[in-house]
Amino acid sequence: MRLRRWGVSGSGDVLGAGVLFGTDRVLTCAHVILDPETGLRPERVQVEFPMLQGLPRTPRRTATVAAGHWVPPFGKAQGDLVVLVLDEAAPVPSPVTLHRTLDYRGAPVLIDGFPEYQSGGQWLTGACMGPGGEGDERVQIDVTGPGGLRGGFSGAGVREEGTDRLLGIVAQADESGAHGYMIPAATVAKYFRRFAERYVTGPHAVPGHRVVSAEAARAARPHGLQRTVTRWLNGDADAWDTEILFLADKDARARQALYVVLNMADRELSPQLAVKPVELAQPPGEAPAPHASHEPPEPAGTPLLSRAGISPRVGSIGLVLDLEGVALDDPDVPELREALAVLRHELRHAPRRHPAVAVLFADRSDTEPAAAVHILRELASSGARLLLVVRDSAHGFAYAAAEHLLPADHAQRWLQRIGTRVDALADTERRARRLFQRVEPHVVDPPTATSLAARAALWTVQLSTELRPPPRRGGPRLLEKLSHAEQAVETHLLRATAVEYELRGMLDDHLRLRALLRDHQARLARRGLAEHPEAVGPYREAQRLLMAGPCPLADAERAVEAFARVVRRLAEPDGAA
């Protein structure tokens, strides 16, 4: 559909494109309808249906912004969505729905927009390249045919060639027009949940009973297994396409940590992208309330986890298959059956895609271990990257997975990877000890550097003795030990890194305060006021706190600021006189 600036004569400028859903809902980008000069929402826009054939004139409707369905552009390439409501039903209802896709990479697409001087429309072909934009909210598209993305394509639907499924809408393009970005279905569903219930199809990446609230994710404390899962999600060099993770049956904290990191990787659930739609709090055309036109509430993110290096790429998880209590070979759960069908379809028809699939608790499935491993092996050989989460190493699934889903030298390579992390732990603890030696004489109660690397190194030696003779294969019991060892080493590394971070911050603050004190004193000295009676006392107090022995940094900060106030008063011309 074509969007124009509203005018009584119907001859307003073309603004861009949109997609009709049902009889009266139009999805487009917020920037399409914003007035470029005032930055305000228009009272109404004109929607036209130029693709309808056999009519004497192009049908048109008037549309307004639906309450609660306005997310203006914010941050860097974030938001920029709006749902419009037509004043009367469209001439022909639309059966279109947005479709969630497990992995967009390589998907061939068709785009129909309304660039300048081509108000009748123009078709482009392209290919999805993967997540892009700030926060990975969007998906990059490279134009593969003649022409380029430019003004007038914003809001246009992006259809998958061959299936005709609607994957998202165009949001922006680079200056050359050779590359652009699409807002995918999952991002739309994140902002407009009620809209998504009616008009977004395809399996959710994370099943509903494994969803963690954004508030719980933001408050979550780091766990070592999250580092391993993050590397697998991001496809890092030291991660493998098929990983196995053992969780103790009674370790509820580890399971929650797993669910949190998988939620963070889901574009639709990720708490760092959680921004509520802005309600229409003022009449259209008037100046919007603060944050209503350009800056919606900023997402709080997950500061504790992000600071610990636990930052999976948003959109990196394709699917979570929870097999606890259900059959994999003949699932009677509709959601699981749909998810498997979509996964097999994409793997069969899109060989360039490699969706990340987390398989939870196959050792609690109703499917026989050999049959479950056979299905998973087919998925892996078709291109799926697997994370196998297991509770019981004595279960038949663990044996079958170790034999048929993992390479023969997996245990040996895993032990080497743990050794690398132990080396990183040792280096971090050394740096923290050096920082502690510099901080302790000046700051009260600095955190003590950990000394866990030696113990972790001993674990690797003990585990190496359990490797079988060549080809150095390890059974499920050894794999379970390696999994728990890696989780422990990563947790120790998280703790050591946090201590190093805190000590470095204390040292930086102490050095900053000393430099401030020195600069303020030099400012007085240049004016011959270094021995002024009003300055001597505050200066000596600040110097004593910073140099005489350990002190609370807050006390030193207040003392330096007190001296700075004296300096500012004396250094002013009136004060100096």
Give a written overview of the molecule.
Helix 9 (369-381) packs parallel to helix 10 (396-404). It contains 16 helices and 19 strands. The strands form 4 sheets. Strands 2-1-5-6-7-4-3 form a 7-stranded antiparallel β-sheet. A 6-stranded antiparallel beta barrel has the order 9-10-11-14-13-12. A 4-stranded parallel β-sheet has the order 16-19-18-17, with helices on both faces. The N and C termini lie far apart (74 Å). With 577 residues, it is of the alpha+beta class. The protein has helices at residues 30-33, 185-191, 193-199, 214-219, 224-234, 252-265, 303-307, 334-349, 369-381, 396-404, 410-439, 453-464, 476-526, 533-547, 553-571, 573-576; strands at 2-5, 14-17, 19-21, 25-28, 45-48, 60-74, 78-86, 98-99, 108-113, 122-132, 138-143, 157-160, 166-173, 179-184, 200-201, 242-246, 319-322, 356-360, 385-390.
Brief digest:
This protein has helices spanning 30-33, 185-191, 193-199, 214-219, 224-234, 252-265, 303-307, 334-349, 369-381, 396-404, 410-439, 453-464, 476-526, 533-547, 553-571, 573-576; strands at residues 2-5, 14-17, 19-21, 25-28, 45-48, 60-74, 78-86, 98-99, 108-113, 122-132, 138-143, 157-160, 166-173, 179-184, 200-201, 242-246, 319-322, 356-360, 385-390.
